[in-house]
Amino acid sequence: MTIRTLSVVLGSLLMTAAAHASPGCMDAGSMIGFVETHLRNSLKAEELPLARYHAYKAINTMEKSRTQFEDCGCDYAKKHIFESLDNLKLATRVNSLEGTRILVRRALNGALAGEEALELHDELHDSPYDSDVLAM
Q1: Whether 55 contacts 28, CB under 8 Å
Q2: What is the pLDDT of residues 97-119, one digit of tens each?
Q3: What is the pTM of this model?
Q4: Number of continuous H segments (helices) and E segments (strands) in the chain
Q5: For 22-54, b where at least 16 C-beta lie within 10 A, e where not — what string?
């Protein structure tokens, strides 16, 4: 492979990558999928300690991924995810399985709303401009 061919291939890869969502948004989207898995497992749990275990796993994932949401910049997704996080924290303090399930369902709905907001936000990344703020 010649240097010219290599530079053309690398250039086209960079241009293709620039047209897609930012890495922060892609990471945040995959994190939401992981959180959803734990939330669904928490809802399926027949015992309170197991439901709490999965809720804690979802909380830890959300806390560790906070910077990805900041990097993405989707305010609607952040709002839903952080509301979901608040519901999960409350779910770990409830003393009944049914009470935990109610809060985990709310958290799951928030996570799904955040995922939908991220998908809509990704469409906005297909702008011909470098940023979402234009100045004259």
Answers
A1: no
A2: 999 999 999 999 999 998 888 88
A3: 0.72
A4: 6, 0
A5: bebbebbbebbeebbebbebbbebeebeebbbb
